[in-house]
Amino acid sequence: MQPEAFSELFTLFNAASPDTIDWLLTISTTHEYPAGRAVLMEDAWGNAVYFVESGWVKVRRHVGDEFVTLAVLGKGDFFGEMAILDESPRSTDVVALSSVKLLSISAQRFIQTLFKDSQLHHRMLQLMVQRLRQTNFRFQIRNQPPAVKLANTLASLSDAYGQVTDRGTDIFNIPLADLADVADISDDEAKKIMEKLSEKGWLKTDSEQGKIHIYNTKQLVDLAGKTGR
């Protein structure tokens, strides 16, 4: 990957120096996984940070005899940073939702790079605070109606990872159970709301192409009660 494409794809590196980008490209390792493959397992020690070059993954936690999906990440995002920064075992699994291509950078070299490039260090802190704000917002709407919570989830995924088309925005056709977990609603509620949104013409689930076509992002954002997007 060329340095310009690397910094454009991964917003974490927007402010990094050219020397940092060149260095990271020489030390990164490429990984490819099929859908359904575990990328990282819970309780494995953090030894690298992973960057999603293409595809989709889900972050899940083991709860009793089941798994609960905490987040869905797409192209341009990253994961694994928490475990290397506090030098503790991972508390979650990461599983490929689709075929996925990842880049990894070892924990030691990534931390060294953060110390050497203050702009990258600052950008890392910004993105971590942004994630914390998103978590806080989800907590604030925990008592909202299921439709509001699902609309927020869809709008956030569209904003972060959506591919703009002439008709709207496309995101990966995330399994209903995972979508429900992230929105903190039941599978049945998610199914009924998705059917209703489809009837309204706001979106369409395309199983053949593996996509959710979102035709009316503005109305989804309005339903989610979010402004300033």
Automatic annotation (TrEMBL):
- Residue limits of the Cyclic nucleotide-binding domain? 12-131
Q: Which Pfam families does the UniProt entry name for this protein?
A: cNMP_binding
Q: Where does the secretion signal sit in this chain? A: none
PROSITE patterns in UniProt? CNMP_BINDING_3 (PS50042)
CDD domains noted in UniProt: CAP_ED (cd00038)
Coiled-coil stretches noted in the UniProt entry, renumbered to this chain: none
User: What name does this protein carry?
Assistant: Crp/Fnr family transcriptional regulator
**Organism encoding this protein:** Almyronema epifaneia S1
